[in-house]
Amino acid sequence: MIETPYLLFLGDAPDQLSSKVAQGIRDWRPDNAVGQYRMEGCKADLRLPDMDLAEARAAGAKTLVVGVANRGGVISPAWKKVLVAALEEGFDLASGLHNLLRNEPDLAAVAKATGRALHDVRVPEVAYPIANGKRRRGKRCLAVGTDCSVGKMYTALALDRDMKARGLKSTFRATGQTGILITGDGVPLDAVVADFMAGAIEWLTPDNDPDHWDIIEGQGSLFHVSYSGVTLALIHGGQPDALILSHEPTRPHMRGLPDYGLPSLEAVRDVSLTLARFANPDVQVVGVSVNTAALDEAAALACMAEIEDRMGLPTVDPFRQGAGRLVDALVAL
Amino acid sequence: MIETPYLLFLGDAPDQLSSKVAQGIRDWRPDNAVGQYRMEGCKADLRLPDMDLAEARAAGAKTLVVGVANRGGVISPAWKKVLVAALEEGFDLASGLHNLLRNEPDLAAVAKATGRALHDVRVPEVAYPIANGKRRRGKRCLAVGTDCSVGKMYTALALDRDMKARGLKSTFRATGQTGILITGDGVPLDAVVADFMAGAIEWLTPDNDPDHWDIIEGQGSLFHVSYSGVTLALIHGGQPDALILSHEPTRPHMRGLPDYGLPSLEAVRDVSLTLARFANPDVQVVGVSVNTAALDEAAALACMAEIEDRMGLPTVDPFRQGAGRLVDALVAL
C-alpha cells in the first residue's frame, strides 16, 4: 500500500507522452495528486500546481511518485538530487520503472537512514497463495482483449468512475504498474511467479458485499502468445461474472508479433466464455469497448455500429462516450 | 545443466514412495544412475548397487542427487553430514526440495570453499526472454490433461523412449522438478515469472532438424483454475504440432479443488486446439493417454476402448502398453 496523496515528479520529461503515468494518476485519482514537481527543461505539464518539496509536504503529500519514463526506464542521475532530498524531507518514493529504486545504492542508504519506504511497483511485495478456486461473494468484471494495449485499463477505470458516479459499489483492482500507481495498491501480475498468478488475483478480489463490483484491470490477451498465460490466470483467479471484450480496430498485427493477425471478437468471446465458465458457470459477456483513438468521429461511430450489430452487445468507446452503457449492462445482470 | 552420472541419495527414506524422484531417474535414465546411497533405517531400495561416496566417485558419479522427499520438503539434519562429505569428496549436489540447498548455511559455505555447485532445480537459473512467437524448425509434441497429475510426464518419457527405440530423433524436454532431475536439464516452469513463461518454453525447444521431435513435458490443465495459465504458456510457447490428451478416469474432482469436476476430453480437445492453432495452424490432436493404474486389466481395457471409440483417436496407457501407438500417430503426421 502506497501512502497518498502524491507529489507527481515529472523530472526533465522530454515531452508530454513521457509523463503518462503521472497523467493517469491526475486523470483518474485527482484527489491523490496535490501537485507536480518539474525540473529545468521539463516539457510535460499536468496543469497541477507546481510545488517544491516543502510546499508539497505542507499540502499534505506523503509520497513522491516518479511519474515519468526515461528512455530505457532508468533512474536518471539528474533526478537523484531531488529524490534524495525528498527522502530527507520525509517523503516515501514510488516508481514503476524497470530499474528499481532499491537497487540505487544512494537511494537505498538514505531511505534506510531516514526510515522512508521505496515502492518499486514492478516487484510483488506479498507472498501470494496458490489459487483455491472457492467462489467468493460479490461481483467481478474483467475486460479481455483481442490484443495487448487495446484499452482494457482505461475501460476498467472508466467503468469504476461511472459506477461510483451512480452511487454503485465499485473498486478498480489494479494488476499493472500504472494501475497500481494510480490507486496506490494492486498486484503486479506480470512479475508474479507462475504458480501464484491465479492466487494473486483471488487475493486481490476477496469476498465482498453481494452488490459490490470489483472492476479488474485486464492484461494481455488469450491470443497473444507471449502473455496469454497471464490472461488466463486473470480469468480463472478473478472468476468474473461479467466479461467485456476490448478491441482496437486499426491494429495491423498483434503487438510485438508481426506474423500474428488479431483474432476476431467472436473468437475471443467464445474461448473466454468457455474457460471462464469453468470458474464461474454464470459468467456472461456484457459488452464491447473499442479504442477508436485512431479514427475520426464518423469512422469511430460506424465501426462501433458495425460491431454492435454483429455481436449483439452494447459497444462503446469509453473515452469518447463514457462507460455508461457498460454500467447499464452490469446493473442489468 | 547438472553433471551426470549421479549417485542417488535415498537418506533415511521412510518408504518406497518417498523416493519416487530417484525411482524416476533409475527408470528413465538408468545410465545416469551409477548407484544408491542409503542411510541406516532407509526403507527404499532402487535395486541399484549400494555405494559409499568414495565408491561412487570411483564409478564416475559427478553429482549426488537428493532423490527422496521428506515430509514438508525439508533438508533433514540427519542428511547434512553426508551432503557435506559429498561436497568435500568433489560431488555437486542437486535437489528438487522446497527448502533450497543454497539456503542451508553449512552447505553453502562448504560448496563455496570446495568450488562445488548446488543445483536447486525449483529455481530458474536462466534469464528467459519474452516469447517472440516465431515459428521454429523441427516438430513438437505436448500432452494436455483433464487435470494435474494425470500422467503427462510419464506419457512424454514413454514417447521419448519408444521413439528412440525406433531410431527416431527425439528429445524429452523437462518442465518440472522431477523431469529436470531425470534429464539434468530443463525449465522449472512453475517458478518462472509470469511474463517469461512462454519465452522459457521457446528457449527450451529451439530450432531443430525438420524430422526431430521435442517431447515437451506438460503441466497443469487449461481447466485447473490454479495452474491454467502455466498450461497455456506451454501451448503458446511450445507451438506444438501434435497434442496428446491425458486423463485419469477415476478422479472424483480436480486435484486440490473439491468443488470442481473434471472437464470432458472433448472440452479439453476443443479448447486446446482453438488456442494452439493460434501459434501453429497445423496442430492436431493425435491420441489419448490414460492413466489406468487404479483399474484392473479388464476395466482398464474397457475404459480405453470406450474412449477410443468416442474420440476416434488411438488411446493407450503408456505404462501398461507402451507408447507405440502414439509414436505411430506422430510418425503419420
Distance between the termini of chain A: 32 Å
Q: How big is the Rg of chain A?
A: 20 Å
* Largest β-sheet summary of chain A: 6 strands, parallel
Strand order of the largest sheet of chain A: 7-8-6-9-10-11
> Which range best describes the helical content of chain A: under 10%, 10-25%, 25-40%, 40-55%, 55-70% or over 70%?
25-40%
Main structural class of chain A:
alpha/beta
Q: What is the assembly state of the chains in this entry?
A: homodimer
Q: How would you summarize this macromolecular structure in one to three sentences?
A:
The first copy, chain A, is α/β, with parallel strands linked by helices and 333 residues long.
Summarize the topology.
2 copies of one chain form a homodimer.
Chain A: E1 6-11, H1 20-28, E2 33-38, H2 53-58, E3 63-66, H3 77-89, E4 92-95, H4 105-114, E5 118-120, E6 139-145, H5 152-165, E7 169-173, H6 177-183, H7 197-204, E8 212-216, H8 228-238, E9 242-247, H9 265-279, E10 284-290, H10 297-311, E11 315-316, H11 318-321, H12 324-332
Parallel strand pairs in A: 1-2, 1-3, 3-4, 4-5, 6-8, 6-9, 7-8, 9-10, 10-11
Describe the structure.
- The structure is a homodimer of 333-residue chains.
- Chain A is an alpha/beta fold and 333 residues long.
- Helix content of chain A is 36%, strand content 17%.
- The first copy, chain A, is built from twelve helices and eleven strands.
- Chain A has helices at 20-28, 53-58, 77-89, 105-114, 152-165, 177-183, 197-204, 228-238, 265-279, 297-311, 318-321, 324-332, and strands spanning 6-11, 33-38, 63-66, 92-95, 118-120, 139-145, 169-173, 212-216, 242-247, 284-290, 315-316.
- Chain A has a six-stranded parallel sheet with strand order 7-8-6-9-10-11, sandwiched between helices. A five-stranded parallel sheet of chain A has the order 2-1-3-4-5, with helices on both faces.
- In chain A, helix 7 (197-204) crosses helix 8.
- Chain A is globular and about 55 Å long.
- The A-B interface holds A 130-135, 189-195, 197-199, 222-223, 225-233, 236-237, 239, 254, 256-257, 259-260, 263, 267, 270-271, 274-275, 278-279 and B 130-135, 189-195, 197-199, 222-223, 225-233, 236-237, 239, 254, 256-257, 259-260, 263, 267, 270-271, 274-275, 278-279.
